[in-house]
């Protein structure tokens, strides 16, 4: 099992580490408050949020629609030889706008919501039960999946997996809603085993075929966008799955998979990689797997043990995780005491950094770790930091003030211009005027806020020298330059 | 010290850096795979599903004219290759190149169990996977991982906003930019041509172990750590990895910017984004950027409605951009070193639809052109009557084309990169 961290080892650094991993980072004040709480209370505050923390108001447009009627309308127009393309384009644009808004909505939950671990676990499950709007298309379904993930994020994993088997977005993504008993579709069954529960090598091709039969009759009602069973499509014959025989249904398949030792190993390893370090030892994975089995796949006690363990606070683990693009956006906004970037800019940033919420590249989700960093993505992070700090003033004028006759269409270009507006950060909040006497003090203050491990004396001196070279007074503009430089370093990518 | 540095002008700084880089590169003596003198592959993605039937036209086949009463191209307008097939009227430049012996047209290219989703089929072409498997890394990424360790970070260059999945690798490699001037750290204050104190400090902070006692100043920014330590990126600790990447980013950025400023094409290029991309590529080649694989894309091929004008325009853009690119390379004396390969995620349906367009199809032709290409027709033109759910059946797996390019052009083991051996084609 994991070994608990002794209270004597709890300090600034461990408090900061907990905030970085269980949440999206913390300001120096938050770190201090967390340290004062002590380990047990701090972990409890994250893990033991009430169930109603998941009662988040959906975006205004997120309600079911009669998709079937909409599609039949388009088909009828097509059959009549009419130009149905404009209607299709309209639907596409609406989907596009709604997805931008859905991403804004979730980033807002992460940055401003009262339950950051709940959001972080939702993000974990989103990468685990990967589903992409590129196939699902409809934004309401993507929101619905996110809502289901959130409501079950800290609960029982088996129950969550069963909910995913009935989730319309997942069913569309893995073709489950087409699966008929005459010819069951194996896509969901395969990924359930390979990617969601036990992992490759722990099942046979026959297991896939047999379990696919157990998942027949799962349907979506396109007039209400909700799940329902179609009993006549269900295969009620006996199936043989992993040595067990009987008229097994989908839920029973999931129960059997979750009960396999390989499942606790698989989920344990993924949790550790997401929250702690890229390359866990097999001993650590065994410990986490043991913890998961002991608590019967209930996430709250598992996370409580993880966040209270010495292994979590190991020297190897602290300050050594590359911030995912989403973590980067949320944590940087928080540290700047600034709002999240405007929706279109945020979406573009996610795309350029390689992690678009609701659009993982494939069903394997995101690998994470060093995969986030290439010369292009690193340069992008540096230049994006400029925008986060200095606002839209740094963007080319033609983006900020579109002229008539722009390619995209003036109305749309003007809309985009609205959507990238951002003011420069109010650095007065970070470094008040009365603390600007000495450049070294200013640098210390900012370094404490933005870096996990203290920079070397050489770097501190270089920052101070830079500030001094700017002039006798430390102005807001100088501070923003300095902060930009601090963020344009390898060290700032770590949490 | 900083005060003195702040008076440097940007060009002076670049020269110093370049000189230092060249000197160190000579010293490091890595056996790195390089495009500097070796062969170069340019991959051109036609995104959206190019209508192969109207690009390489079976003008003598009645079935073509019957299936496409509105979209068919008249036999007297197309550019005839032989008694059966011809090129789209807008491909005059390609026709000349073909006659010169520099174009291989591979017919009927596709893969088993074709997928008709843009997203999924593009993924299949980018990762070279079987249709029923999902791979994360791209085929070029696997080439970089397997065959280019120790190579310059610019071994792969993609022109565009996003890195193509084809480049996705275990060791993230390659550089993506739309314009050379963009691919750099942009300081808070515009620098008016002078290297600002900000930019100088930025460079110091982003050099290998910039914080340690060896205190490398900007002019000593040597080759990447890897050349010195011999480690691949994957072996490095996370911070080392970040620092190595930061240094690579700076060096690549400087190199690219320097080349872009120094090399301008004298051959005229047409308007349009594809021409602009190929122009950048040709300048990088002229400037000796050690890139082995360039990637460019042309969008807009998803012609479900009103295809006739759109496709004609796209064919024209393709033709004019590629022709200019070829002329440029010839003038540089680099045409024999370059092989350009075009592909699309699928072709389009034989039967036109009710909206004057075509829907997603399957098999389609690929163009492979270059100074060293063995010209001619390869594969077979698919039958327009024996179809697979209304679509042309493939007879050449696209991985045969990839494999041939890997083995014969890039001198890389295609079996390792693609997972198995595919029959080669005599295109090069």
Summarize the structure.
The complex is a heterodimer of chains A (495) and B (428). Chain A is mainly α and 495 residues long.
List keywords for this structure.
heterodimer; A: 495 residues; mainly alpha; 3 domains; two-stranded antiparallel sheet; 24 helices; 4 strands; 55% helix; globular; B: 428 residues; alpha/beta; Alkaline Phosphatase, subunit A; 9-stranded mixed sheet; 3-stranded antiparallel sheet; 36% helix; 12% strand; disordered N terminus
Which range best describes the helical content of chain A: under 10%, 10-25%, 25-40%, 40-55%, 55-70% or over 70%? 55-70%
Distance between the termini of chain B: 56 Å
Mean pLDDT of chain B: 85
Q: What assembly state would you assign to the polypeptide chains in this entry?
A: heterodimer
The residue fraction in helices of chain B comes out at 25-40%
State the CATH class of chain B. Answer: Alpha Beta
Largest interface: A-B, 57 and 57 residues
* Structural domain tally of chain B: 1
